[in-house]
Amino acid sequence: MNMLKIGFIGVGGIAESRHIPAVRKLAEKAVITGVSDVNHHRAQQIAETYNIPGVYENYHDLLENVDAVFISTPNKFHAEISVAALQAGVHVFCEKPMALSTKECDEMIKAAEESGKVLSIGYHYRFMKNAQAAKKVMLEGEIGEPLVIRAQGLRRRKVPGWGVFTNKELQGGGSLIDYGCHLLDLALWLMGDSVPVEVMGSQYNLLSRTPKQVNLWGDFDHSTFEVDDHVTGYVRFENGASLLLETSWSANIKEDLENVSISGEKGGLDVFPFHLNQAKHGLLLNSEAAFIPGDDNPGNPQAENFVDCCLGLAEQVVKPEEARRVSMLIEAIYESSLTGSSVKLNERKEVESQ
Ligand SMILES: NC(=O)c1ccc[n+]([C@@H]2O[C@H](COP(=O)([O-])OP(=O)(O)OC[C@H]3O[C@@H](n4cnc5c(N)ncnc54)[C@H](O)[C@@H]3O)[C@@H](O)[C@H]2O)c1
Hints:
Rossmann fold; globular; alpha/beta; binds nicotinamide-adenine-dinucleotide; 15 strands; Gfo/Idh/MocA-like_OxRdtase_N; 2 domains; about 350 residues; NAD(P)-bd_dom_sf; Dihydrodipicolinate Reductase, domain 2; nucleotide binding; six-stranded parallel beta sheet
């Protein structure tokens, strides 16, 4: 088998902690041959640490020398670099969120369609063991059609104090686009092909704009804090299902909470921790899993699925149209929050390039 030559564009925290180790585990089919970062010193340091031969100041030069690329830059650059890579005939794994807007997502999907190359997005929650178990239970019809879905990604005081996470121009938003996107993506994936038709949302950032807040994830400047730190959303689907989303970096709640819970026609489930809730034999039953197979580190199966897709060996788990739907809902939640009205989606085409 030919080795897949992989490049990295943007080699900050997530590239080094998740993607580089995951790709290095796939040594029989993939090799990291180049890195590029606007912080050239950082690129050189990563290349040295991981014995990567190519360091490129200009990412276009890297694209000429690789088969596939991992893009882990701030959100603002996801679309531009992905489109350039796809147009250069390079497979793309792009970190989440897919882009800053549905329009940018459409440009990425169009470039992928025209190039015939793989485009996947880093929604790694789908590769978590509990999520895989929940998907299997859903596909086997154990809980029937989903009726009410709750997606919660709540942190009490964890505004990221590093990188550019509180910069609206570079990231497009705060807790919703950065963290809530994972739970939203997971919920939509578990629901299957339910089509969202209407969205309402509210966003807050009063806590993070208040001086002298306790924060467990480093320091940030409250006086320039301009993104959301707590968001609620309500999504209605064509089939009558509804989804309640709540996410925060900072909120006056008792403790952090992360879960997707689905109440379906025949039963229900919780993903974190995994629970199957059923009414059977005249009883109300709650089942726990004594064993869940899979890798404890979802970054490993995520990278393997991408590499295998590039090599034509596997079906893509995170499809770009699905990641685009997450971005469309995020955009609609922010829009609803600003206008105070619900946003109707049923007249918006799902994928504009179709
Ligand atoms: N899937 C997840 O759970 C997860 C977790 C963390 C971050 N992320 C995503 O990964 C991306 C990067 O986050 P991070 O935590 O690694 O941030 P980071 O700040 O640690 O790293 C970003 C790197 O990109 C470089 N960079 C900035 N602009 C660039 C450009 N135009 N071209 C090339 N390099 C550029 C920076 O110099 C830096 O080295 C973000 O999109 C973020 O949402 C995803």
